[in-house]
């Protein structure tokens, strides 16, 4: 009888160990999710933002986003309340050039661009470069009727858009399903819900993201990637001198 119990116990423990071993590394999951957000090392994106309050229109805007490598980006606001602004994001800092301003102003990537969308949401599309990831205690969950891996992300760089994130990645497909963003104080800042990836040109990407305020969920901003074009940009363009040209 003791032998039978020992055999069953070893079998259960062995099964648990195998199950744990089958879990992907958090860094692998993060890389998979990133691949649905940014695939090209250097590219130009056309992005539209649309905000609502209590389901009523509350502003819209169009952006041109230029990405180079892992930590260089330019966000140019083409229309809307902030039209004319250009934001430079590098591994050292984030700067904004206001229309008719003589000097750029240093800002944080968490600063809101429009509605619930922050500059970092457009200029920092790769989480793996800015965050360290680990599984949440409850690593397997269901979000929006989708089975997901639940990760906890902690900023590894000072220019990371958010101090902490809870990220939920589809177990079948590896695409991001939902993210919850926190301030350094631990306070809930906002959430993001990602649509299932679709084909944009030759790429399969998460085209639509909906951001909701952490306190008032009726305040939402929809971000839609209209197009992605692979382009190579000179490094000079991603400097303060280039920002002021």
From TrEMBL:
Keywords: Signal. It comes from the Bacteria. Residues 70-243 form the Uncharacterized protein TP-0789 domain. The keyword Transcription does not apply. Residues 1-20 form the signal peptide. CDD domains: LolA_like (cd16329). This is Uncharacterized protein TP-0789 domain-containing protein. It comes from Verminephrobacter eiseniae (strain EF01-2). The lineage of its organism: Bacteria, Pseudomonadati, Pseudomonadota, Betaproteobacteria, Burkholderiales.
């Amino acid at each position: 009888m003791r032998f039978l119990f020992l055999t069953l116990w070893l079998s259960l423990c062995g099964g648990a160990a195998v199950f744990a071993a089958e879990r992907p590394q958090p860094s692998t999951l993060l890389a998979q999710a990133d691949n649905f957000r940014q695939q090209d090392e250097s590219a130009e994106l056309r992005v539209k933002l649309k905000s609502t309050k209590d389901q009523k229109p509350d502003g819209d805007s169009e952006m041109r986003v230029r990405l180079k490598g892992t930590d260089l980006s330019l966000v140019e606001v083409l229309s809307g309340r902030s039209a004319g602004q250009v934001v430079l994001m590098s591994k050292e800092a984030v700067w904004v050039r206001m229309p008719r301003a003589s000097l750029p102003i240093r800002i944080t990537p968490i600063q809101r661009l429009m509605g619930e969308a922050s500059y970092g949401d457009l200029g920092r599309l790769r989480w793996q470069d800015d965050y360290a990831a680990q599984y949440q205690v409850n690593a397997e969950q269901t979000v929006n009727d989708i089975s997901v891996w639940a990760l906890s992300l902690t900023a590894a760089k000072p220019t990371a858009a958010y101090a902490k994130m809870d990220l939920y990645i589809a177990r079948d497909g590896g695409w991001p399903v939902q993210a919850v963003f926190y301030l350094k104080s631990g306070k809930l800042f906002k959430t993001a819900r990602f649509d299932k990836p679709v084909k944009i040109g030759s790429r399969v990407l998460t085209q639509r993201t909906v951001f909701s305020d952490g306190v008032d969920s009726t305040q939402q901003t929809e971000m839609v990637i209209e197009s992605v074009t692979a382009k190579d940009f000179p490094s000079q363009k991603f400097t303060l001198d280039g920002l002021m040209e």
